[in-house]
Thiol:disulfide interchange protein (Acinetobacter nematophilus), 252 residues
Amino acid sequence: MIDLKTLGIYSLSLVLSGSLFAADADFLKNKLEKEGYHFVQKIDAPDGLEGWTGYKDEYPSTLFISKDQKHYIVGDLFDASGKNLTEQAIDTHVKGAVLDEIWKSLEKSTWIQDGDTNAKKIVYVFNDPNCPYCHTFWQHARPFVASGQVQLRHIMVGVIRPSSKGQAATILNSANPAEIFKQYNLSNGKNKLVEMKNIPKTLADQLDANTQLMDKYGFYATPAMVWKNASGEIQSQQGAPKDIQKLFNESL
């Protein structure tokens, strides 16, 4: 004879086991999310694996998690003919999300506004106070800025000379950074800035974050520009452009 109490306990244990299994089904996904991986779209995967597109630190990838939650693979997936399915998946699902993240990171950096805040187009410029090419770029950009078509956002860094960081701090710490920056560029950098020796920690951290952002995007010289073209795709250039009109026309 079957004991109904025993049956009830057995049934409950099955329900609890099922709940635990369901909770563990996303164990690796949850772990990876906590470590900074952004899952964007689930994709087809080989048997025994769950496939995803996503990105970490703005680097896109495809990721495959074993159904037993013991292993995961980050890398390219090819079919039998040698076609790279990862590239297609990233272009379809992740590219736009990563570009949005890049633009947001530029927005969050510490920069000096140059031009109409309502200008249609924005160009971010990594700028070192001791960079003569930055002064040249600033001068050549005046017609586009003055017309209200373009606003420049100068992301201040200190990478050229030991004094650069202190001079950038002097600009940013002034009562009117935009005006000090303007006058400095009008003099073509000849009106030397006082180097701040004891930079407040908050300001030093902001300048360090700007430099890290510059390194992250692979720039090693200033000026370095980042903008969106007419199609909304992010473009970049390192060094003073030979044809500044072409650069700004691409951003309009």
